[in-house]
Design a protein that fits this description.
This is Acyl-CoA dehydrogenase family protein. InterPro entries: Acyl-CoA_Oxase/DH_mid-dom_sf, AcylCo_DH-like_C, AcylCo_DH/oxidase_C, AcylCoA_DH/ox_N, AcylCoA_DH/ox_N_sf, AcylCoA_DH/oxidase_NM_dom_sf. It holds the Pfam family Acyl-CoA_dh_1. This protein has about 400 residues and is of the alpha+beta class. It has three domains: about 5-120, Acyl-CoA dehydrogenase/oxidase, N-terminal domain (Butyryl-Coa Dehydrogenase, subunit A, domain 1, Orthogonal Bundle), CATH 1.10.540.10; about 125-240, Butyryl-CoA Dehydrogenase, subunit A, domain 2 (Beta Barrel); about 245-385, Butyryl-CoA Dehydrogenase, subunit A, domain 3, CATH 1.20.140. Helices cover about 50% and strands about 15% of the residues. The protein has twelve helices and nine strands. The protein has helices at about 5-25, 25-35, 40-50, 70-80, 90-100, 105-115, 130-135, 240-275, 290-315, 325-345, 355-370, 375-385, and strands at about 120-125, 155-160, 160-175, 180-185, 195-200, 205-210, 220-235, 280, 285. A hairpin with a 2-residue loop joins β8 (about 280) and β9. α5 packs antiparallel against α6 (about 105-115), α5 (about 90-100) packs antiparallel against α8 and α8 packs parallel to α10 (about 325-345). It starts with 6 loop residues before the first helix and ends in an 11-residue tail after the last helix.
């Protein structure tokens, strides 16, 4: 692994940071999350038209840029710095790779160019247990089921002319605005029970989408209710979606880790800057040794998390898995950086109006959605067979 960034990778970071500095400052961010969509459509169009961000990791044959997971992670590190509310995670990180991996050629050709151009946004609606279970982030997904019937979740049944879905999915990222829903549904009855993925256009009759109040307003979530909703099967009935979901999970974890690193780095920068300005006992609080030690510990944690995130992104593109551990380290670094930021900003840091709370909520919200940290680490140890055959002394 070459740890040096290429000129192209540096250019991606620089160009994206400059654009977001102009278009996604604190005022623009707060205004965007208050809109019904939860993000700024004009900023999304700029990210798509100027940088090709939605199709950054999609093949050129489908209108994408043809970059690897590493470039996507570097881009998300910059969006994390500014807590950019956008459909990027739901569309390009969670949904598009599944369409690419499991879809028919007609489905890929019909959907991916529109996603790459930013004209179509998508959301992954995973019913049943938590999203982390389906993505095999906190445990194996061999027994994963999308639920259905009295057990909740979503059930699929054959109907004249195709498939019909009924059920409900909570906490669908950007599900209220997505032009396309990719829904995990249970089918086959008890004897042939299995989970399949189905494509549902967002404006389909019978699909009711309601935005929910979320801890982290920069990650809008929705409840999706399906009432005898027509759907198109993704790929074929013989497809086992669980390996694809597990492979996607490691890729998602690597990108999320980079995003968390960007957020942690930014809140650390702002805290250091404020510590040099806030006066106590006639001198800046940043000159006190105790404050220096606290900020130095945060800095070490952020740099270690960045190294882990970069390695996980590289590994995801080379058939290796390190995403869960990198995500655990990055979420922990972000949580600590955000907590120190709130405390060292003093009284103003504890007000809802201060930006430190946005980063603190991102740390807490991501751990609720994709963690917790101790289970991510446990899964990483299990995958690496770290304790296999080890004798436990009593």
């Amino acid at each position: 692994m070459d740890t040096r960034l290429s000129p192209e990778q540096d250019e991606i970071r620089r160009t994206l940071r400059e654009l977001l500095r102009r278009r996604c400052g604190p005022a623009e961010l707060r205004a965007a999350v208050e809109t019904p969509a939860g993000h700024d459509p004009l900023l999304w169009s700029a990210l798509a038209d100027r940088l090709g961000l939605p199709g950054l990791a999609l093949p050129e044959a489908y209108g994408g840029v043809g970059c690897s997971v590493t470039e996507l992670a570097l881009a998300c590190e910059e969006t994390g710095r500014f807590l950019v509310p956008s459909p990027l995670l739901a569309t390009s990180v969670l949904t598009a790779p599944l369409i690419l991996a499991l879809g028919t050629e007609a489905q890929r050709a019909g959907l991916l160019p529109r996603i790459a151009a930013g004209a179509l946004t998508a959301a992954l609606a995973v019913a049943g247990p938590a999203l982390t279970t389906a993505l095999a982030l906190t445990g194996g997904n061999d027994g994963y089921s999308a639920g259905g019937g009295r057990a909740g979740g979503v059930q699929a049944r054959r109907a004249e002319g195709g498939w019909r879905l009924y059920g409900e999915v909570e906490q669908v990222l950007d599900g209220h605005t997505a032009g396309l829903l990719l829904v995990a549904a249970h089918t086959g009855g008890y004897a042939r029970s299995r989970t399949l993925l189905f494509l549902v256009p967002g404006d389909t009759a019978g699909a009711v989408r309601t935005r929910q109040t979320a801890l982290d307003a920069t990650r809008p979530q929705a409840r999706v209710q399906l009432r005898d909703t027509p759907a198109e099967l993704l790929g074929s009935e013989e497809t086992d979606v669980r390996p694809a979901l597990a492979a996607l999970g490691d890729r998602v974890a690597a990108v999320l880790a980079a995003e968390a690193v960007g957020a942690a780095d930014r809140v650390l920068e702002r805290t250091v800057e404020y510590a040099g300005q806030r006066m106590q006992f006639g001198r800046p609080i940043g000159s006190f040794q105790a404050v220096k030690h606290r900020l130095a510990d945060v800095y070490v944690g952020v740099q270690a998390a960045r190294s882990a995130a970069y390695y996980a992104a590289w590994a995801a593109g080379h058939g290796q898995r390190a995403g869960a551990l990198a995500l655990a380290q990055a979420l922990e670094a972000l949580r600590r950086a955000a907590a120190e930021g709130v405390q060292l900003h003093g009284g103003i840091g504890f007000t809802w109006e201060h930006d430190a709370h946005l980063y603190f909520k991102r740390a807490a919200g991501d751990e609720l959605l994709f963690g917790p940290v101790h289970r991510l680490r446990d899964r990483a140890a299990e995958t690496a067979e770290l304790f296999t055959g080890a004798e436990v002394a009593v």
